[in-house]
Write a structure and sequence with these properties.
Layout lengths: L24 H4 L11 H25 L21
This protein binds zinc ion.
């Protein structure tokens, strides 16, 4: 890998640059895009994905129970049960 500080080429598994002595992995490897379980940020994303999943399910239900909807894949949408005395 190539050192970003001095530009010297080092071995692939070398931890430190042979030219300037700086650690190579910390500079070359990009930070993880989504680190699971990092603390306060993880539960927030869980709630966001849960809301997204609920929204998708709600949209599918709306399409499925529309009488003249675009969702024709439903086998036989049962009418809503209304029990009124
Ligand atoms: Zn270097």
């Amino acid at each position: 890998m190539k050192c970003r500080s001095c530009g010297r080429k080092n071995a692939w598994q070398s931890e430190f640059c042979s030219g300037c002595g700086k650690p190579l992995e910390a500079q070359v490897e990009p930070p993880a895009p989504t680190a699971p379980g990092t603390g306060a940020e993880s539960w927030r994303w869980n709630i966001i994905w849960l809301l997204v999943a609920l929204a998708v399910v709600a949209l599918l239900c709306i399409y499925a129970f529309q009488p003249s909807g675009k969702f024709k894949g439903a086998p036989s949408p049962a009418p809503p049960v209304t029990q009124q005395p």
